[in-house]
Specification:
By secondary structure, the protein is of the alpha+beta class. A hairpin with a 2-residue loop joins strand 1 and strand 2. It has three helices and four strands, in the order H-E-E-H-H-E-E. The longest helix is centred in the middle third of the chain and has 12 residues. Helices cover about 30% and strands about 20% of the residues.
Length: about 90
């Protein structure tokens, strides 16, 4: 794996999935025994923390139902387990 001219590398999907490195995850670089390690930043807010904070900021203006939130986050008709129309493979 090569470092780009901007100092970037791609973390393999297998590792991103295994360690929960989702887009927006805060990471830090740590030097241990002459090696550079990347890890989730301790104390960094989780996506759930950020979502709850956003809801607190919106306050009473937020009017979505649980079902509407579940549809947005899961892409399915929550409660039935079926994908909404237009999602998934045409069969």
């Amino acid at each position: 794996m090569k470092v780009t001219s901007k100092g970037q590398v791609t973390i393999p999907k297998r590792l991103r999935d295994e360690y929960g490195l989702l887009p927006g995850t805060e990471v830090e670089f740590v030097v241990k025994g002459g090696k550079v390690c990347v890890r989730k930043a301790p104390g960094a807010p989780t996506r759930g923390d950020e979502f709850v904070e956003h809801l607190h900021q919106v306050g009473e203006e937020f009017t979505m139902s649980t079902e509407e939130i579940m549809r947005l986050t899961r892409g399915e008709d929550w409660g039935t387990g079926r994908l909404e129309e237009g999602d998934g493979d045409p069969a």
